[in-house]
Amino acid sequence: MNESASSRGMVQLSIDPDGWCPQARRLPSPNFDARPAGVVPQLLVIHNISLPPDQFGGPYIDGLFTNTLDHAVHPYFDQLRPLRVSAHFLIDRNGLVTQFVAAHARAWHAGLSSFEGRDKCNDFSIGIELEGSDFVPFEAAQYDSLAALTLALRRRYSLRAVAGHEHIAPGRKTDPGPFFDWLRYRQSCSAATYLPPLRFAMLA
Question: Could you list the active site residues?
């Protein structure tokens, strides 16, 4: 997907049998491993990220997730040196989708986490990062791409629920934050009535 979502309306995305989105920009991360035997994705986790904090654009998120970040570029980056993290997907401010890890593999996005009494959310979740912060609204193009990506993932996997990082790691994480419109997101996903219901944990 080489142009912004907003320039052409609703995005059409799919997930192939290997867990990759052919329409996304593909930038493989080394920060992943296999899910436990027999475990399949059942949870979507929504995050926000900006590097440096509250600044958008640039190659820095890509660098963080691929272990190529130049830590000398900004003072904030020095504290990121030991990190080895990733997400399955990133949606930038223009709605461009980048995929770092195949959806069937375990990306390192959730950290210490629990959902409905089940720990280690990385084992059974797919992580989607939105370029943003806790202090500004997200863009319409991001909601469009997020809805399309959610639909594509639901067609491929038996996803049951959606949660924010703040909901699976309360007190430790705050994203996607107060400016993420959960109602708008749920409504954008509601048209797929032919799929099993997707539960939005924070709106239940």
Answer: 129
